[in-house]
Amino acid sequence: MSHTPNRLHAWRHHVSHSWFKRLPQGLFKNLVLLFIALGLVGSVGVLALIAYVSHDLPDPNTLSDRTVIQSTKIYDRTGEHLLYEIHGDENRTLVQLAQSFCNKEKTEINPEGIPLFAVQATIAAEDRTFCEHHGFSVKGILRAVWQNLHGNRYGGSTLTQQLVKQAILSSEKKISRKIKELILSIEIERRYSKDEILQIYFNEIPYGSTNYGIQAASQHYLKKDVKNLTLAEAATLAALPQRPTTFLNNPDLLLARRNWILDSMAELGFITSDETTQAKLEKITLETQVTNISAPHFVFYVKQLLEDTYGQREVEEQGLKVITSLDFEKQIIAETEVTKGVEAKGESYQFNNASLVAIDPKTSQILAMVGSKDFFDDSIDGQVNVALRPRQPGSSFKPIVYTAAFMKGYTPNTVLWDVKTDFPTPTGIYSPNNYNLKENGPLTTRKALQGSLNIPAVKILYLVGLDQTLRFAEELGYTTLGDRSRFGLAVVLGGAEVKLLEHVNAYATFANEGIVRAPIAILKVEDAKGNVLEEWKPEEGKRVMKENNARMISNVLSDTEARSYIFGAASQLRLSDRPVAVKTGTTNNFHDAWTVGYTPSLVAGVWVGNNNNTAMSRGADGSVVAAPIWNAFMSQALASQPPESFTAPEIPVTGKDILDGRLHQETVTIDRASQKLATEYTPASYREEKTFAEYHSILHYIQKDNPLGPPPNNPADDPYYESWEKGIQDWMRREEERTGVKIQQGTAPTEFDDVHIPAHFPSVSIESPGQDVSFESRNISIQVNASAPRGIQRVEFYIDGYYLGQDANAPYTFETTIPSSVGRGYHTIKAVAYDDVDNMGSSSVGIRLRSEGGSRKFLITDPNNGQTIERVQSQFTVVISMDKPADYESVSVYVEQPGKNNRTLIEHISHPESPFLTVSWILPSNGDWVLSAQAEGKNGRTETPGIIVHITSPSSQIASKTENTNTETIPASVPVISELNPFTTQ
C-alpha cells in the first residue's frame, strides 16, 4: 500500500499551521514558481558547465598509453649544485587479481595473482563502498568537504577517481579538472567491470619512488612477488599510495597506518581479530636505498612538497627543474658537524644520532637540513628525517611560554619564587623540581629562564594560561599541539612534542622581531619547456607579537651574564665574535637533547638522541651534547658575515615592585628606642634605616590575567594562592635552619617617635664660669646644673666645638687643661647634657684666655671636626700635622665614644720624621666617635682637641649595571639574584 497520499496530507497539514498560511495565496504561488524556475536555471547551468569541460576529455580507453618520461632535477639555491635527479623510468610489472572481489559468482583462483587480502587491505584503506558506487561517493565527497572546512586534510576520492587522477588526468588543482575526474570515473565504471578496474588500479597506482603497481612495489621494497605477500606486508603496501614519500621516510607513521588498515579489515569482516593481532606483531623492513643524492633528507622533504602540489606522476615523469632554498656550503658544514658531534660524544653518552636545521629568519628559507647522522645507515634508522619527527623539546620550549608572558604584561624583571611548590590538579599533586634539585628563592624571570629553572617556568605557564600559551605556539607554526587533553603544566618543561623544523622556525620569529612565515624550501619550479610553474616572492608574513616583546626575549636569551650562575661564563652557548640568543633543552631520563639559537640573520637548532627513543646516559644535557654541534655550525656558517647586534628592547617599568624586579618591601628611618618612625627630634645616634618586608608570591600583588591592572581584592581566591604562599614560608624556614639566621618579616610602623620629644629634652645651665670671665691660666673648672624627665646620663664639654671630655655624675663638675693648640683670645665653652636615649639640651658661655697657646702646630687635619664618614671602605686615613717633627719623641692617636670611657689606642708612632703623619683607622660601628692625638717631646706633652666624627653606612646610590654588552642599560634598582635574596648565598 502506498503512503504517498498520507505524506502529502501531512505536508499540507504542516503548511496549514505554518506562517505560509498567513501569506496571500497569489504571493505563495509566485514564490513556489520562482523556486522552481531557479532550480531549472541552476540545472541548466550545471549541465552547461559539464558540457564545457567534457568537450576535451581524454579517452578512458588509453589507460595503458605512456608519454615520454623526463626526470625532475632538484638543485640548491644557486642552481649550480644538483642535489638529486628523480628518474622517470617506471618500474612496472603487470599482474592479475588472484580472484574476483566484487563478483561473488566468479570462483576461479589464479595462484599467481594479487592475493584477496591485498585487495581487501586497499579497499579498507581507500574505498570501502567500491563495489556499490558508480565511480564516486556522495557521502565521501561531503565528508571530505566537512573535514577540509575544519582544517583537516581528507580525501573523498574513490578508487576509480584515484585511478583517473593518476593514470589519465594531470594533478592541477582546478574545479574543471575535478569535474573531468568525476565524469571520467563514471565513464570508466560504465565501460569496465569492478574487477577490471581493480586490476588496472593495482597495475597503475604509484607506490613511491619509481614503483608503479603493487607487483613492482612488492619486488622493490620486500624482494618478493605479490603472490607471496603476508597479510601484514599487504597492509603495509596498501598504506603507501596515500602519501608514499611521507610514509617511506617515516616508519612510525607507516606502522600506525598499517595497523589502522588491519583494524579496518577486521571491522569489515575481512579478517579475524586473531589474524589482526598476529599481523600486528610482524616486523617489516622496507628496502628504500637510494644513491647519487646530496642532502637526502631535504631532498625527500622537497619531493613530498612537490608531490602534494603537482602529484607524484608529474614529479617523476614531467622533467621539472626545482631550485630550492638550500645553501650548499652551510649544508656541508651542518652534515660535517653533526657527524663529528655524534662521533665525539655518542659512545660516551650512548647516543647514535643527531639532526640539524638552519633557517634564514628574514625569509624563513631553509638553508640546511640534516635529518640524521647518516641517511644510509639502517642501524640508526638513518632514512628517518628527525627534523620532521615530533620529539619532546625539554626546556627549549620555555622561551615560547615566557614570550607569551611578556605579551600579557609580565616583564623580564618580574619576580618569581624558585621554591618547592605543589600544584593541585584534577589528577593529583604536581610538584616539579629543578634539574639539580636545588632552590634559589626569589629571582627575576630573566634569571629563571637563563638558568633553565623548572619551578618558575611552571609558575609562569600558570600565569599566562595553558590554552593561551598553546594558541600562541600554534600561531608560531607548531602543528603538533592539537590534542589539548594531553597537556598540563608540564608543557613548559617540554611535555608536548614538536618538530625540529617548526621549533627552529618559531625561534626565527623571535629573530625576525615578531613576524612569522611558513618555512620555505622551494624557490622556483619550471616545467620541461622552461615555463615557471611557481616562484617564491618575498611576503610580509604575519605579525604574532609586538616588536618589543620579541626584542625582550632576544635580550634575555642573549644575556650570558644572567646564564652564568648555572652554565658558567664560558660555554658552548656563546659565540666568540658576536651576541647570540640561545636556549637548551633536555627531556626527562635524557631521551632528547636540544640547542636552538640565533643571531639576527641565522637560526639553527640541533637535536641529539636515538631514533628508537632509548635513553642516553645521565649527563647528556643539551648544553653538553647538542650545544657543541650547534656552536661549531654557527661559528663556521657566520664566519664570513660581520657581527650583528639585537635591537635593544624597552624594558617596561610598570610601577609594581613585583613586575619591576623588586621584592615588595618598605625602607624607613626608625627610632631605635621606640621602634617607631623617626622625627626631626630623633638624634642621629638613635636613627636607623630599616627595611620591612612581607614575603609573598606574585599572586598576592597581581591578578594573573591582568597583571597591569589593580591588585586582587582577595588574593586567596586564586586556587594556587595557598600552595604558592606555603612554598615560600616552607623555604624560608629551611633557610633559617640552614644558615642559622632569622629572616626578618613584618610591616613598617606607622606611629612616630614619642620618646624623643621636646618635653623630654634636658634642661642645662652653666653655673661656672660666668659669661666673659677671663682666665690667666689654662686650667679651668666648669660647673653645670642639669636635669631631665628621664634623668641625666652624662654631660659633655666642648671648647669651640672641640671635645674636651665628659662627666656622668652629679654634681656635674669638669676640670680640664685647655689644649695648647687653642690660642689666646675669646672662646666658647659649651655643655651638652644627655638623657638615657640621647635627648639633649645645651648651654654655652664665652670666656677669654689670656695665656698664650703653644707656638708649635699639632692638629688633626683630616677628618674635620663634625665630619660624617660613610663606610664605603673599611678603613679611613687620619692625617696629623706638626711643624717640627724632630721635637717630638712619639705621637699616639686615640678614639673613644663620648660618654663611654672606652678610649682606645689606634696607633703609636715613635720619632716621627714627616710634618704629616698618616694613620690607618679601621672604622668602628656606626655612631659618634671622638678622635684625639697626644705627643710627647722636648717641651712635655701636647694634645689636640678631640674632634667628633659620625660613622654611617653608605647612602643609597643609583648606579648603572649593564646586563648585556649589546643591549640596554638596566638600573641597579633591578636586583640580580643575590640582591633579591639577601638572606641566602648561591
Automatic annotation (TrEMBL):
Any one of the GO BP annotations: peptidoglycan biosynthetic process
Record-annotated Glycosyl transferase family domain positions: 103-265
Residues in Penicillin-binding protein transpeptidase domain copies: 355-634
Statement: the UniProt record of this protein carries the keyword Chloroplast: no
Location in the cell: Cell membrane
Matching InterPro entries: Beta-lactam/transpept-like, Glyco_trans_51, Glycosyltr_51/Transpeptidase, Ig-like_fold, Lysozyme-like_dom_sf, PBP_transglycosylase, PCN-bd_Tpept
This enzyme's EC code(s): 2.4.99.28
One GO MF term attached to the UniProt entry: carboxypeptidase activity
Presence of keyword Hydrolase: yes
Positions of transmembrane segments: 31-53
Sorted UniProt keywords: Carboxypeptidase, Cell membrane, Cell shape, Cell wall biogenesis/degradation, Glycosyltransferase, Hydrolase, Membrane, Multifunctional enzyme, Peptidoglycan synthesis, Protease, Transferase, Transmembrane, Transmembrane helix
GO cellular component terms attached to this protein's record: outer membrane-bounded periplasmic space; plasma membrane
Chemical reaction(s) catalysed: [GlcNAc-(1->4)-Mur2Ac(oyl-L-Ala-gamma-D-Glu-L-Lys-D-Ala-D-Ala)](n)-di-trans,octa-cis-undecaprenyl diphosphate + beta-D-GlcNAc-(1->4)-Mur2Ac(oyl-L-Ala-gamma-D-Glu-L-Lys-D-Ala-D-Ala)-di-trans,octa-cis-undecaprenyl diphosphate = [GlcNAc-(1->4)-Mur2Ac(oyl-L-Ala-gamma-D-Glu-L-Lys-D-Ala-D-Ala)](n+1)-di-trans,octa-cis-undecaprenyl diphosphate + di-trans,octa-cis-undecaprenyl diphosphate + H(+)
Enzyme's top EC category: transferase
Coiled-coil ranges per UniProt: none
PANTHER family to which the protein is assigned, alphabetical: BINDING PROTEIN TRANSPEPTIDASE, PUTATIVE-RELATED, PENICILLIN-BINDING PROTEIN 1B
Name of protein: peptidoglycan glycosyltransferase
Organism: Candidatus Uhrbacteria bacterium GW2011_GWF2_41_16
